[in-house]
Design goal:
The chain is α/β, with parallel strands linked by helices. The protein has helices spanning 25-35, 86-93, 110-126, 151-158, 176-190; strands at residues 3-5, 10-18, 45-48, 55-67, 70-78, 98-104, 136-141, 165-167. The protein has one domain: 3-Layer(aba) Sandwich (Rossmann fold), CATH 3.40.50.300. The protein has five helices and eight strands.
């Protein structure tokens, strides 16, 4: 739910990057951080997990202009993808305004993508959200690798809710800002003072 600070004239929206381990969630946020003007971003905070394979979450306040007389700020989070961090993922989803589901396009990762999407659906439900009603973008990442699953097959396996889709290669930055802009547009169209998505 967007946080509205009337005294500071600021609206803060929370975007969560979700997906299986090593799919590119962290790479997306790091690319956004690196390519954003220093005056428009806050500090990137990273907490490592015990296995050191993924970040626990990233926090990136990103100023995106004004909504009426209010300054708009996005906070970007990633969730740990490994199965044993399920409770952490559920906690990070609390109070969200939008989700970017990052799918790994490699054939060997298709089952992990499907499992992660089911996990997202279940965790959203436990937080009082319906996946069909949450501002959601699917990013099909790692499109530069050989032998990736077709977008059509990824769509059939993952996008039963008919959410907008973006193809990406997060390691080069391709599709990263397109994804952020797409989820931002959906969040902004649903944004109402004092209301959640």
């Amino acid at each position: 739910m967007a946080f509205i600070n009337h005294a500071g004239r600021e609206i803060c929206c929370k975007i969560v990057y979700y997906g299986p381990g090593l799919c590119g969630k962290t790479t997306n946020v790091e690319q956004i951080y690196e390519r954003t003007n220093a005056g428009s971003k806050g500090k990137l905070i990273s907490l490592k997990t015990e296995s050191d394979r993924t970040l626990f979450f990233d926090f990136l306040p990103l100023d995106l202009g004004m909504v009426g007389s209010f300054k708009l700020r996005f906070q970007l989070y990633t969730v740990p993808g490994q199965v044993f961090y399920r409770a952490s993922r559920r906690l990070i989803l609390k109070g969200l305004d939008g989700v970017v589901f990052v799918a790994d396009s490699q054939l060997a990762r298709l089952d992990a993508n499907i499992e992660s999407m089911a996990d997202l659906d279940e965790n959203l439900t436990e937080n009082g959200f319906a996946i069909e009603e949450v501002p959601l973008i699917l990013q099909y990442n790692k499109r530069d690798l050989p032998g990736v699953v077709s977008v059509r097959d990824l769509r059939a396996a993952l996008n039963t809710m008919n959410a907008p889709e973006v193809e990406a290669t997060a390691s080069t930055g391709a599709g990263v800002f397109e994804t952020l802009k797409a989820v931002g547009r959906i969040v902004l169209t649903r944004l109402r003072p004092g209301r959640s998505i």
